[in-house]
Structure formats: C-alpha cells, structure tokens
Amino acid sequence: MCYTGNINALRQKEWELLVYQAFYRVYRPQSFAEMSGQQHVKQTLQNALLHNKTTHAYLFSGPRGTGKTSAAKVFAKALNCENGPAKEPCNECPACLSITEGSNTDVIEFDAASNSRVEEMRDIIEKVRFAPSSARFKVYIIDEVHMLSNSAFNALLKTLEEPPPHAVFILATTEPHKLPLTIISRCQRFDFKPITPIDIIDRMKVVLADAGINSDEGALKVIAQAASGGMRDALSMLDQVVSFSGDKLTVEDALLVTGSIGEDTFHHLAEALLGKDAGTALSLLDQLIAEGKDVSRLAEDLITFFRDLLLLRTAPDLRGLLELISSDERFVEMAKAFEPDTLYAYIDILAKTQQEMRFSNHAKVYIESAVLKMIHIEGSHTRREGNVQTADSGFMQKVAELEQMIVQLQQQVVNGVGVQSAAERTTQPRKNASKSSQSFKVPTGKIHETLKFATKQDIHTIREEWAGMMRTMQKSHAALLEETEPVAASEKAFVLKFKYEIHCLMASENPSLKSGLSEALRSRTGKAYEVIYVPEQAWLKVREDFIQKNGLAKQQDPRPSDVEGVAEETLSFVKEAEQENVDVLVTEAEKIFGKDFITVYDD
Known about the structure:
Layout: H1 2-16, H2 23-26, H3 39-50, E1 57-61, H4 68-80, H5 94-101, E2 107-111, H6 118-128, E3 138-143, H7 150-161, E4 167-173, H8 181-184, E5 188-191, H9 197-211, E6 214-215, H10 217-227, H11 231-245, E7 248-249, H12 251-258, H13 263-274, H14 278-290, H15 295-314, H16 329-337, H17 340-357, H18 363-415, H19 419-438, H20 444-452, H21 456-472, H22 475-480, E8 484-489, E9 493-498, H23 501-508, H24 511-525, E10 530-535, H25 536-556, H26 562-579, H27 584-593
Protein name: DNA-directed DNA polymerase
Family: Belongs to the DnaX/STICHEL family.
Catalytic activity: DNA(n) + a 2'-deoxyribonucleoside 5'-triphosphate = DNA(n+1) + diphosphate
C-alpha cells in the first residue's frame, strides 16, 4: 500500500540515527490492515468511516497489549485524513504524519492513571468547545480511563453525552467493570479479544523480516505461548530474545529468556509418569526450579501440555490447535499411551494445585505433591478398571440368572401356572419389608408408663413454656417441630405428637434435636423431661389401647385401690388433653394479658 513506504522510511531513519526503540514502539500498527486480530472491531469501525456514521464516544476494553490504543490512533488518523473519513488512513498527508509522530494538537492523548483528579478533567472540558486548529475532528484518547476519580467521571459525564460536533472521545481500559454504568451507556463499546498465537507468530515474522533477523519456527511458537494473547508482550519478549541471541533466534534461547519448558523436558516427564518413576519426575522438577523456572508458570505449562496430549488423543485431526508441543510422532504415540480419563485427572490435579499455590509460600511442595498424585492416580485407575471388570462379571452372572428365570416362567405359562400370582408372591414380601424398614417404631411401653403417671401440672407447664422454648432453638430444629404438640406429661417424661410420621422418623434419627429439646425445657421449667416421639395416628391407637386396658382392669377388680384412682384420674386427663387443642400463640397471649382479656375466634 502507499502508506507503507513512508512509515518504513520513518523506521529506517530511526535505525540510521541509532536511536533504538523497542519493537512494540517501532512496529506499532499504523493502519487497520496492520492490526493483528480484532476483525470485529476493524470491520465495524471501517464501515462507520465509509458510510460517515461515526459517533461521538467509543469505549475500547480488553486485556493489555491487544491493540486498544493503536486502534484509537488509527481511527483518529482515518477521521482526520485529508482523503477521509476513509477506510484506511493514507499515512502521507500532514495530518496522518503529525498524528503518527504525536505532534498533532487536535489529537490529545490523556493518561488517566497519572491525571486522575477532577482538575485535569475540567481542563479538558473547558477546551473541548474550541474548534480544532487544523484537523477535521478533535479526538481525545483517554487511556486507562478506569483510574479516573468519581469526581472526574461526574465532570466528564455531561460533556461525554453531548459533546460539540467536532469532538470525539475514545476511552481505553483494561478493567471496564470499574467504570460507572452512566459512562458505559454513553459510549459504543468494543471488546478487544486476546490475540491468537497464529496472529502473533505472523506479526513477529513481519518484524524479523523487516529487521533482517533469522529465526526458528519453534522459537516464535515459544514466545507466542508465553505472551498469553498480548502482542505488546510478545514483541517485548522478541526484542529481549533478539538481544540475547544475536543474528538468529533459536528455540533454546527463547526457552531460556521466556522461562518456558522445552518439548524434550515435557516428554521425559510424561515418560516418568507412565513408568510411575517418582524419582525421575521429582528430579526433573528440581532441575527446572533450580534453573529459575517460576513454579506457577510451570504448573500452567504442564496443564497446557496435558491439554495438547488430550487433543492428540481424542481429536488427532486438529493438530493446528496445539499450543505447546508439535505434532511430532513421538507425542502422537505418547498420547495413545494415556487414557483420556487419566489426562482429565492430571489437568484437574494441576488446576487445584495452581489455586492452592496462590496462598502459600511453599509452592515447590505443592507442585511436587501434584506430580506424586499424578503418579499414583494411574494405579488407582488400573484398580478401578479391575473393579469394573469384576462388576461386569457379576453383571453377566445376573443376566444369566434372569435368562434362566425367564425360561422357567415361559414353561409355567405353557403348563397353565399363573405367572402374575407368582410374581405377586415374590414381590409382596419385598414391599412389606421396604415399608416396615422405613416406618417409625412406636415406643408403646414408654407412652403407657408416661400416661400412667401423667399429671395436669406437668403438661400445662410444658405447654406454657413451649412457644418461648421454640424461639431459643436452632432454626432447623424449630422447623422440624413446627407441627408438633405435647399431649401428655409426667414428672420424668412427656409425649410429643407429630402430625406426619416422616417428621417423627427424622426427629428420632437426630440425637442433637432430642438433647437440645430436653435441655431447653430444663432451662425453662427446672425439670429434665425425657422426650417420647409418636406420630398422630399411632398416638390415637396407643391412647385407645391404654383406655381399654385400664377400663378392663377396673371391671375385673371391683375393689377400690390407689392404683385404680390413679387410672381414673389418668383417663380423665387424657380425654381432657385430647379435647384441648391448645394453640401456643393463645397460651403465650394468656400469659401476657390474662385469660379474662383473651377471646379466640375460629375462622
């Protein structure tokens, strides 16, 4: 293109003047075509330029080094180009060249990180109403906009919503969640994505070709992987590797400078895991850490390595998606040696280890423990396969038994024997057993003993304290006792009736509830009552049995006695207790206001 010659001339002039600049500064994109990735951003902005539908405020958000500021400058040049607004800036006119050099007074770059106060923002707002001196638009590029103070955001708010027609604001940030929603809603938002390793490698090839430096493909791949989607990071590391290696970039130099791990080391470690050789695996780890490899970065690289093996194992046709290793045949064969479940387990172990290392000063211990877990999980996987085989053999045995049973049933049908009745006889005991195993066993003897010595005073005392006691118990316990009612009490125990049998069964299986209930009553009444649970239906039957037994005893033995008097008193009390349907709220109200002032209405 026509603009490439002038930009390259500027770059060559910088080299001739021996004013060395970093690669990421010298090779900053000067047009949309030079931008790597971000196709959705480029196409939208170019269409807006072509159809003259540009707006007054833009928000560029995304990870560091993905081209936000570069896209803002290219967009500013395309707006103010003498041939524009154009799809691409010409990079030849005075406006484009001055913006490239940073000397255009109508394109203002504002660093919010170092100018976050409201005074700096008011200075911009006061000057924005003045028309541009030479360009078509006055463009304000506010970098790291999330660093502005709340006062600065408030000052910018109205101007950002209705700026003068000649003003365009471009806000760039790596943390859009820190921006007020009132700011975000006034901008067109563009989310910049991490740049793919393929795009990073293509850009580094252009840079090295322009600089006249040879390189291995593997070295560029190592740098792209270490950059984690950031073009600026990739060019900075490339600059460092070039300074270290000289005329040609090698894989060894790239590994040493970036702190990454070579394919051979990964291969040896994977062989140690396959062979369950803990000594070799731990020695390799110790060697890598002694060479200065970052432990957290080591865990991340191992996760990527096993991800690549999993990709080769499950989708060998997608070798272009490999990130850390090549599609060498040795890795293809190694991937076949691992089961997918084992690779999944390795990734899970390393991911958990990576999280745990963040909060510890002993990261080496965690990574070593992770490798040992990975060695042992292979054995457990083998044992699990053995268990599966055993289960399969048992399953086949069951299938054989069922087939034999089917043959017998077919013979019975031929002979005229009722199959359904036989099946019912087979399944009926099982149903009864299941039902009985899930039913509540009623403590009839304890209930009879409590009824025999029941007193009105004790049941009234418990009922009066019941509502207050429920408020002091745990919420889970109180919820389980919500539909219960004390129905009889002696000096030592009381009977608690449940509306539903399932709730009674759950309460009987909760020892902490029983002890907590007794303790709560003891603290309020001064007596340690034993709690006896009973479902409502069972209570009616036990009560009836008790009444009948005492009535029969009275008829068989006409002699009056103290026991008979107690029985009569108990019977009358039980009937009275059943007739009373005391509401805990009514009881509590009577305690506060007195019975004479309380009237209960039934809805």
